[in-house]
């Protein structure tokens, strides 16, 4: 029987994440999905960027590529177009994937590149000292906003949907069963998929905002979460400050490779027929 262990590099453990960090839960969820789908290791390519969650590729026994800060989606686009039969995944943090690499996120969604983006959102740049990112909530304390963050944060899932992503979902580290289901759905979806995974950063964000130990941060995450179904019955005011979890967007449209290949095939046909 295939298990998540078949996709892990156990000689690289223990991992380097801080105690209480949720990134390890996401890592195990990804490996578990590979096992559930019984994917061939040679048919998977994972691209990671810089940051805490960028270390995922250190522990997976599959094809991996580690790239520069904010450019994971750009590299993955080339891989996906050159190898359309590969399952291409991209692992990024909120800083790497949306603050530094936000433009690539928008255009991957717009173009509908056939890949699965998994963004671990801990509301700050965890690896470099807890600076604020594009997802840091207003009034939150970080190392670069010691008196409260004044910038408006954005919603990663809403951004992806607005840019054209066909599959958008959110899960929390508190609920890895739901996380695995949503990641699998993203891999099976044809086109650009985004799964936002909410993870705790007790070392920086939790400490600066007095949220307690990691276990308490996980409890807060769960208390803040509501399902998509419940959110539909709530007013906009009632949804403020809540994390809507589950499958948020699921619609089909041709991915970039399919449309591009259609043009190539048509041109080749015209040339063959002498047009």
Q: Class in CATH?
A: Alpha Beta
Name the helicity range: 25-40%
Oligomer: single chain
Output the helix-strand order.
Answer: HEEHEHHEEEHEHEHHEHHEH
Strand order of the largest sheet: 2-1-3-4-8-7-10-9
Shape: globular
The CATH topology corresponds to Rossmann fold
Low-confidence segments, ≥5 residues, pLDDT <50?
A: none
Cα radius of gyration in angstroms: 19 Å
Detailed description of the structure:
- Helix 4 packs across helix 5.
- 45% of the residues are buried.
- The mean pLDDT is 95.
- The protein has one domain: Rossmann fold (3-Layer(aba) Sandwich), CATH 3.40.50.
- The strands form 2 sheets. The chain has an 8-stranded mixed sheet with strand order 2-1-3-4-8-7-10-9, with helices on both faces. Strands 5-6 form a two-stranded antiparallel ribbon.
- It is built from 11 helices and 10 strands.
- The radius of gyration is 19 Å and the shape is globular.
- The protein is α/β, with parallel strands linked by helices.
Describe what is shown at a glance.
The protein is an alpha/beta fold and 275 residues long. It contains eleven helices and ten strands. The chain has one domain: Rossmann fold (3-Layer(aba) Sandwich), CATH 3.40.50.
């Amino acid at each position: 029987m295939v298990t998540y262990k078949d996709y892990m590099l156990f000689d690289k453990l223990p991992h380097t994440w801080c105690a209480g960090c949720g990134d390890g839960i996401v890592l195990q969820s990804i490996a578990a999905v590979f096992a559930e789908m019984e994917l061939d290791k040679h048919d998977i390519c994972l691209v990671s960027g810089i940051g805490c969650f960028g270390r995922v590729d250190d522990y997976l026994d599959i094809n991996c590529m580690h790239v520069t800060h904010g450019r994971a989606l750009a590299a993955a686009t080339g891989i996906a177009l050159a190898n359309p039969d590969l399952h291409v995944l991209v692992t990024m943090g909120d800083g790497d994937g949306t603050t530094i690499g936000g433009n690539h996120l928008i255009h991957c969604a717009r173009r509908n590149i056939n890949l699965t983006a998994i963004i671990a959102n801990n509301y700050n740049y965890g690896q470099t000292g807890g600076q604020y990112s594009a997802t840091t909530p207003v009034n939150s304390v970080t190392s670069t906003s010691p008196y409260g963050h004044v910038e408006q944060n954005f919603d990663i899932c809403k951004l992806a949907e607005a840019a054209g992503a066909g599959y958008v979902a959110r899960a929390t580290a508190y609920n890895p069963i739901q996380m695995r289901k949503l990641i699998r759905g993203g891999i099976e979806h044809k086109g650009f998929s985004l799964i936002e995974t909410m993870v705790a950063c007790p070392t920086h964000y939790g400490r600066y905002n007095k949220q307690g130990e990691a276990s308490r941060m996980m409890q807060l995450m769960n208390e803040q979460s509501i399902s998509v179904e419940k959110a539909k019955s709530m007013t906009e005011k009632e949804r403020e400050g809540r994390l809507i979890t589950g499958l948020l967007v699921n619609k089909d449209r041709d991915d970039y490779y399919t449309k591009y290949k259609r043009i190539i095939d048509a041109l080749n046909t015209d040339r063959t027929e002498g047009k």
